[in-house]
Design a protein that fits this description.
The chain is an alpha+beta fold and 97 residues long. The longest helix has 14 residues. It is globular, with a radius of gyration of 20 Å.
Length: 97
């Protein structure tokens, strides 16, 4: 695949119940691809699809990290955390009895 080493068998691929990135339930295999569809992620991309170098994460997580570096993702999180207005806690007033 893409000229990268590949030595996986079906027995090498373990699909977790939840996405290791988001903690959300994994979806089914075989239907249309959605955010929760299991997806193979290469831990060290240059090593290819070989035993010990892949993990199954959700398609959404894999898509988000597609070509970004750790530094780019950290910069994005920093930017978003400065930009997003914190949620305010509403206080509910109770009527005195």
């Amino acid at each position: 695949m893409y000229g990268l080493p590949f030595d996986l068998t079906l027995a090498d691929i373990v699909i977790p119940e939840r996405c290791p990135v988001f903690g959300t339930p994994m979806g089914a295999i075989g239907g249309p691809r959605g955010p929760d569809t299991p997806s193979l992620d290469r831990i060290a991309p240059e090593r290819g699809y070989v035993r010990g170098n892949v993990e199954v994460i959700s398609w959404e997580a894999n898509r988000l990290k597609n070509s970004a570096t750790l530094e780019q993702l950290e910069a994005l999180v920093d930017y978003l955390s400065r930009r997003v207005v914190p949620k305010q806690t509403r206080r509910i007033r109770r009527n005195p009895s």
